[in-house]
Each structure stands twice: as C-alpha cells, then as structure tokens.
C-alpha cells in the first residue's frame, strides 16, 4: 500500500493523457497495481511510458519503502 496515496494519485493524474486518465479512474486498483509492481521489481521507482503521458515524456515516480512493507511517495520527475 502507499501511505500518501492522495498525493501520488494527484501527481499521476497531472501527467496522464486523456484516454489513460479516464482508464485510470479506479484509484484503489491503481494503488494496488503500483504497490504490487514496486514489490515484485524490488525497485523504488515507478515509470510511465511517454505514450501514457500528456507531454510525451517519460515520467518516473520515486517511493521510499517503510519498515512495515508499505511505500511512501516522495516525488516525480
């Protein structure tokens, strides 16, 4: 799970393009999916391809793993 999911979803929706943003309306599913991908990859970064972003640039979201296994969203670039 992502402890500050509201901030993450807000920043995610700022960069998603129209069709991808509409497809991402199930916020709970999005948070579970991102958490799962972070856990499975062992990474602290979640990347969006430029095709899903409104500005046609690749975006990366950085997280911190907490002691209890949850993640805290830190920033995007």
Concise description?
This protein has three helices and three strands; from the N terminus they run αααβββ. The chain has 77 residues and is α+β, with helices and mostly antiparallel strands.
Word description of this protein:
A hairpin with a 5-residue loop joins strand 2 (59-65) and strand 3 (71-76). The protein has one domain (5-76). Strands 1-2-3 form a three-stranded antiparallel beta sheet, with helices on one face. It has three helices and three strands. It has 77 residues and is an alpha+beta fold.
Determine the strand fraction and express it as a percent band: 15-25%
Q: What's the main sheet like?
A: 3 strands, antiparallel
Poorly predicted sequence stretches spanning 5 or more consecutive residues? none
- Work out the oligomeric state of the chains in this entry: single chain
* Whole-number tally of structural domains: 1
Overall, the morphology is: globular
Radius of gyration: 12 Å
Task: Report the total helices.
Answer: 3
Classification by helices and strands: alpha+beta
Overall pLDDT? 89
